[in-house]
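User: Please predict the structure of the protein below. I'd like the answer in structure-token form so I can feed it into my own downstream comparison script.

Assistant: Understood. Taking the following sequence of 425 residues as input:
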Amino acid sequence: QEGFDMNKGTKSKTAGTSLYTDVRFRYLLAANIASSIGLGITMIAIPWLLISSPGGNQIFGYLTLGMTIFNFVLTPLIGGLIDRFSRKKLLVVGESVGLVIMLSFSILGFMNHTYDMWHYIVVYVTGSLYYTIFYPTMFAFSQECFEKQYYKTLNGAMEVQGQIASMIAGGIASIVMMNVDLQWLLLMNALTYLIAIVFFLKVKFIKQIQTETPAGMVTHQKKTIVGFVYLWKYPIMFFFLLCTTFPFIGVMITNYLFPVYLQEVLNADAWVYGAENMIYSLGAVCAGLLIPVISQKIGNEKTMIFGVFCYTIAISLVIFADIPLFLFLMFFLALGNAGSRVARQTFIMEHIPNMYIGRVDSVIRLIGLFFRILLLTLFTKLVSFQSMIICFILLSGILCVASFVVYVLWKKGLFLEKGDLRAVQ
């Protein structure tokens, strides 16, 4: 059987076949897993090197805050670029920039230059920008390449392969961080970028041209605010989707808190930090395998609620944990975050046309970044005053509020207002 993709107006190559037999899907997985392993190792090593340096805790906090603010400013622009230009070209350009920077810094190390604090900062900034550009672009490109009936499987598979890559990176990092010089890690990162570029170039895809300019979308200004227009039209759906992003916001915040907590409160060694990342990835892999099946049975909305509740309970128990319990909780933090994310991405892909998905998705990311800025500003100050436990209590309270909101919206049946973006054009 042949399917017809209403977003692209062309016959889909994946219709009537298994997603796993599509060569484009294999190339995308290969590209993603390659770059994820290399960058994953680097982004585990760099924070540890930063907080191990004199005054590194505060520097890392302000750096994380600064990058969050910068990404906040950049996100609307990225959403517009994703919808206006070839997603494939944007992915290749992003990988190429990362390749040049990582290779350059690696060569410096092999030339016996000592790495200073500013080297660590530049590498961290590069990795952070890569994440900011890569994931929304890959999200839109995946929707563009495949049909609606494959979105659950697609998002689950992408979560699994991404987290397997992170698990491998965590395992390697826990072994090599204390035994291998940084230049070798940067060289590995550069090579994985190169591999990713090769696989992205192999994806045979022609971007479909929008032949009609919808009413109300004539000016460039109106094109850039289309994401806000959509979410203004469906506020209940917006608040539901926004609250289900709080586990991810929690993950981004704990990327700063956990290294400091492990070193200063639990007095853990570097291998625990690597093991934490590996166990977290294992939990996310399980989510990627289970969530498509669960959401098929109970729906994306209930699956998102389950994810938020799971993450909230786990993060609330962190302050009572020793090292073994802390590592055990990582599994459920991952299950909650990844589960809500996979279901949410599937929902967005199923309900928002591809030509606007970059801008609509960027609105949710933008507001999420705003909350991260506020929390990082507060938590950086609290950490400097040795108030780490208060940070986790506040984070737990915020997640409890988010859990309550998503439950109330679902219980009252207010989330039935799912709409089509065409309704607001």
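That's the full token string. The first strand starts at residue 4 and ends at 5.
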